[in-house]
Amino acid sequence: MALCEINNVTKTYGEGAAQVHAVKDVTLTIEAGEFTAFVGPSGSGKTTLLNQVGCLDKPTSGSISIDGVGTSGLGDKALSQVRGDKIGFIFQSYNLIPVLTAAENVELALTLAKESGGRARAVELLNEVGLEGLADRRPNQLSGGQQQRVAVARALVKRPALVIADEPTANLDSASGTQILNLMRELNAKHGVTFLFSTHDPMVMEHARRIVVLRDGEVIEDRAGGEAISVSNVGVAAVKA
Amino acid sequence: MYLLKLAFKNLLRAKRRALLSSAAIVLGVFYLIVGQSFIAGVDEGVIYGVVHGTTSHVTIRPADYPTEGMDHPVDELVEITPALRSWLDDNTTAWTARTMFVGTVTSDKESLRIRVIGYDPDTDPEVFSHATWTEPDPLPRGTDAGVMLTSGTAGLLGVEKGDSIVIEARTHKGAVNAISVPVAAVSRTGNFMFDNAAVFMPDALVTSFLRTQHPTHVSMRLTNRDNSSAVKEELTALGAGAWGLIDWWDDSKDLVEIGQIRRNALNVLVGIMMLMAAMAIANTILMAAHERTREIGTLRAMGMSKNGVLGLFLAEGSLLGLVAGTLGAVGGAALTWYLAQNPIDLNAMEGQAETIGNDVAYSAFIYVAFSVPIVVVPLVISILVALVASIYPARLASNMEPADAVRAE
Question: Total structural domains in chain B?
């Protein structure tokens, strides 16, 4: 079942001679339960495409639907609601609210999604991502890996249809990065949550079940299916090009 | 509720900055409460001085009676007819007759031209409160008991209780008369008009001294002082134009209106302070919005709408106003409440009595007027000022593009 349909999406910035096509006529379908990576070099359009899918930005042309909801014509309030209800985000810099504890950060996602559960559900998720006993710590009292685990818990606590992770391991050492990826894979397998993430980290690509390679805003390769994908045969050359 | 909680936590993350930017509000609210209370207290002091010193709620005087200065003629008197007496008994809570005249008072050391107030010892305290008098009772009565000098007068004459003074004045018919009387009491009345220079003489002595059959003033207390205008109209009809009528407002409005000018000037000053506070708060919230760009993006990514971000920053600004306003209000209210219980005695201040002079029936005690509106209104204003000051930065924050904001450094 298609969870996310991206149809002929184009995103341009600027006008006239200064116009830049960040994403060019991309058409993709993301099925429910996928664990998909957008890969490509810097400036290839990964983040821009994730912004469109995550309703953080609107495409210049084309359409996107998330879980059956067309987002192209929606206003700010409706888009906010789609983000709150259907999408969880994991960012490269964790983006936790520094004045809130780990539990409060997670709980805030529930509050904004107008979901019940409160602190109990937040603590449950924190325990599930391996942060037992750390619920009342502020972000500055946690390591980078722990902060990213909080971010994962925050993204998942409202049971979203789609989790978007933008370079989730870029700020982590390899051990912590691996742990986060394993965690995401576990949660993907356990809860069937669809993960869509961007990376240019070969280690991350090894964990992906589907890799979409982007260059200059266009999809140049889309390899789906199978187990872990060999670094050598999936567009790494393209990524590194 | 979570917005308020988050806003409060955000405020606490930059305590010093919040404190500094809200200092103008703290001072403005404090200044406004104390200033307004003082001005209201001064207004009440003026009214108290008039009501309990000279005019009560309404006073009947002879027609064309002079209204200013040390001019108290006794050639025209107010006859208390049976009709007037009946009206007074029926329509007032208390009334009394006074005769005011100007005489020359001489002691062994000094001679002064001062105001003499002839009073009825039985009814005068019912109309003019003697609560602030240092020696209110018993007042001298009859023709032989003597007179009461106010403390300033006794000081100027260099006399004490038990000494004798000579009073010289013109009688009702214009002849010059003089009497030697003992000083039966020396008291401070708490009214500058009297305390600097006045003699209180029992009505029986006034009658024999001035050869008068009637008083110059008939003063009355009403159930409600605000009915004084209607009472004046009734008395005008009753007296058929033979009387000059004055009420507490006629006698105090000039000073109260000056108080209003002071109040307006204070409001302008506080307005300037609030404007400064508004700019400081706007700057604080603006800095917070810029510093927290990534957080704003994160909140937007988590589902917070533009209005939610707007509400968050407005809540932060309002909380800043509330906290600062509360600090100023608590300080102002505490000082005001204390001064309301412990009035400032201007007589105790060296030189104040001489400065104010003896033509103003002004209470020598400044009662600072403590009231809930005087405290609450500045507090509400401070919150509104902070709220309005936060609108621009809050709009700026809410209009940030989430895709850019979420990755801001």
Answer: 2
**Domain match, B68 and B128 both:** yes
Q: Do B300 and A80 touch (CB under 8 A)?
A: yes
- Under 8 Å CB pairs connecting chains A and B tally to 79
Q: B208 with B273, same domain? A: no
Residue located via tokens 């429910």: A32
ipTM associated with this complex? 0.89
CA distances from B343 to B39, B279, B340, B366, B368 (A): 13, 37, 6, 5, 7
Phi, psi (deg, nearest 5) at residue B143: -95, -15
Dihedral sign of CA atoms A188, A160, A115, B314 in order? positive
Q: Is residue B114 situated within a structural domain?
A: yes
pLDDT tens by residue, B99-141: 999 999 999 989 999 999 999 999 999 999 888 888 766 788 8
Residues in chain A: 241
> Are the C-beta atoms of A38 and A16 separated by less than 8 Å?
no
Residues B190 and B300 in one domain: no
Q: Is A150 helix (H, G, I), strand (E, B) or coil?
A: helix
Cα A39 to chain centroid, rounded = 13
| Chain A touched by B1 (CB under 8 Å) | no
The whole-angstrom distance between A230's CA and the closest CA on chain B is: 30
Q: Give residue B63's domain range.
A: 58-221
> Both B66 and B11 in a single domain?
no
Query: Residue A237: what pLDDT?
Result: 39
| Contact between chains at B406 and A99 (C-beta distance less than 8 A) | no
Pairwise CB contact (< 8 Å): A108 & B302: yes
State the Cα–Cα distance between residues A204 and A37, nearest whole angstrom: 8
Compare all CA atoms of chain B with the CA of A53 and give the residue at the minimum distance: B403
Q: How distant is the Cα of A76 from the closest Cα of chain B, in angstroms?
A: 7
**CA–CA separation, B62 and B90 (whole Å):** 22
User: Could you tell me if B43 and B93 lie in one domain?
Assistant: no
Q: Is residue B18 a part of any domain in this protein?
A: yes
Q: For residue B230, is it within any domain?
A: no
What is the pLDDT, as a whole number, of residue B319? 92
Assigned architecture for domain A2-99+159-240: 3-Layer(aba) Sandwich (3.40)
B305 and chain A in contact, CB less than 8 A:
yes
Of A56, A98, A99, Cβ closest to residue B402: A56
Cβ-nearest to B302 among A57, A93, A112? A112
In the block, which residue shows the tokens 């920053």?
Answer: B313
> How many CB atoms are located within 10 Å of the residue A216 CB?
14
Output the pTM of the full model. 0.75
Q: Is B307 on the interface with A (CB under 8 A)?
A: yes
Residue B43 and residue B69 share a domain: no
Residue B33 and residue B112 share a domain: no
Residue A199 sits at φ, ψ, to 5 deg, of -165, 160
How confident is the model at residue A239, as a pLDDT?
41
Give residue limits of the domains in chain A: 2-99+159-240
Whether residue B296 lies inside any domain: the answer is yes
Query: Interface of chain A against chain B, CB under 8 Å?
Result: 47, 51, 54, 56-57, 76-77, 80-81, 83-85, 87, 89, 91-93, 95-100, 108-109, 111-113, 154, 166
- Give the residue from B221, B237, B272 where a domain finishes: B221
β-partners of residue B176 are B170
Residue A75's contacts (CB-CB under 8 Å, 6 or more residues apart) are: none
Q: Say if residue B308 is in the same domain as residue B342.
A: yes
Chain A contact present for B308, CB below 8 A: yes
Omega cis (within 30) before B138: yes
